[in-house]
Specification:
This protein has 342 residues and is an alpha+beta fold. It has 2 domains: 185 residues, Nucleotide cyclase, GGDEF domain (Alpha-Beta Plaits, 2-Layer Sandwich); 137 residues, Tumour Suppressor Smad4. Helix content is 26%, strand content 34%. It is built from 7 helices and 21 strands. The strands form 4 sheets. A 7-stranded mixed beta sheet has the order 3-4-2-5-8-10-9. It has a 6-stranded antiparallel beta sheet with strand order 12-11-21-20-17-18, covered by helices on one side. A hairpin with an 8-residue loop joins strand 9 and strand 10. The longest helix is centred in the first third of the chain and has 21 residues. The radius of gyration is 21 Å and the shape is globular.
């Protein structure tokens, strides 16, 4: 058993594999998936990485530096997307979702263990098709090296100069006690996004007492302000819920907001998921599927459909850490005038 210095873990998974087996049959689907995972392994090795193991339709790999992991996974997404354009329709569901995390791990009996392994796996699950999610320590390493003009052996400065990433804020990761600062790497050159975005300062809810913290919710003509001590509250379609959103795309009990460790935490309970975006980063969306996200400052939650659907039921939220205006309906209405127009 050996403990390594900080390294980067990459968990690369294929979406749509179950549907591929149903559509193509076991033999053909298994052949395609095997070729894809072997190709992923070769890409990792070509960028200085090492394949730890193949996991059916996924690959776990390690990299000696964050920038090599970013370079490899960006190349994967770009190359695989081009490939899918030439593939028949039944195979286009086989897309990549990738999680990256850095830290110390333990190598034992040809396997790798540690929190970064678990975090990379969870981020891959949460990222969804065509996405690369990374933890803060990895992105800060890339940022520091770029600022200093330093790149690992084999790294490509030109490629890294073109990498964009944006903060998704603090996200509760299933199975982990602490929330993590998560970033999305924008590998598509056609996307317009912030260059090297650094997470902004969040409201300091960690030091707020229950009596100081509150969250305001609004949907159409309905507004409600809840103190931390009044939580949890469930958002859902049926009248028994604390905040009712009567839309058929909303589950009976769709999401729960509670006060945990000095923060307002939204947990998706639904069949179709929830999408969260914050006012300071309206182009960044966090997709929740039976997972959690910390709500801070102001923003919106789309229930049962993403923000790309203009008719999606959207609940606006405003997090406050003091009592100012807690009982002021005028202030609440002014904050949610736009939300009421959804």
């Amino acid at each position: 058993m050996t403990t390594t210095p900080s390294i980067t873990l990459a968990f690369i998974d294929l979406t749509g594999s179950t549907a591929a087996y149903e559509t193509l049959g076991n033999a053909q689907a298994a052949g395609v998936i095997s070729k894809l995972t072997q190709w992923i392994g070769r890409v990792c090795e070509a960028h200085g990485g090492r394949v730890v193991k193949f996991l059916g339709d996924g690959v776990l790999a390690t990299f000696p530096s964050a920038e090599l992991a970013v370079e490899a996974t960006v190349f994967m997404q770009q190359s695989h997307t081009e490939r899918l354009l030439k593939w028949p329709a039944p195979l286009r569901i086989l897309r990549l979702k990738i999680g990256l995390a850095s830290g110390q791990v333990v190598h034992m009996a040809d396997d790798t263990y540690g929190d970064p392994v678990n975090l990379a796996s969870r981020l891959s699950d949460m990222a969804g098709p065509d996405a690369i999610w990374a933890d803060e320590s990895l992105m800060m390493e890339v940022r520091a090296r770029r600022s200093a003009g330093q790149f690992a052996t084999g790294g490509t400065p030109a490629m890294l100069d073109g990498v964009r990433y944006r903060s998704l804020g603090m996200i509760r990761v299933r199975g982990m006690a602490q929330a993590h600062s998560v970033f999305q790497i924008e590998w598509n050159e056609e996307l317009s996004s912030d260059l090297m975005t650094v997470q902004g300062v969040l409201h300091d809810t960690a030091t707020a007492s229950d009596s100081q913290a509150s969250i305001a919710l609004a949907w159409l003509g309905t507004t409600r302000v809840l103190a931390a001590k009044d939580l949890p509250v469930v958002i859902g379609r049926i009248p028994d819920n604390g905040f009712v959103v009567s839309d058929q795309r909303v589950s009976r009990q769709h999401a729960r907001i509670e006060w945990q460790d000095g923060a307002f935490v939204l947990t998706d309970l639904s069949s179709f998921g929830s999408w969260v975006r914050f006012t300071e980063k309206p182009s960044s969306e966090v997709h929740l599927r039976r997972s959690q996200c910390i709500l801070h400052s102001t923003g919106e939650v789309a229930l049962g459909a993403s923000f790309s659907d203009f008719s999606a039921p959207v609940v606006a939220f405003d997090v406050r850490v003091d009592n100012a205006g807690l009982d002021s309906p005028t202030r609440t209405r002014s904050l949610f005038d736009e939300a009421a127009g959804h």
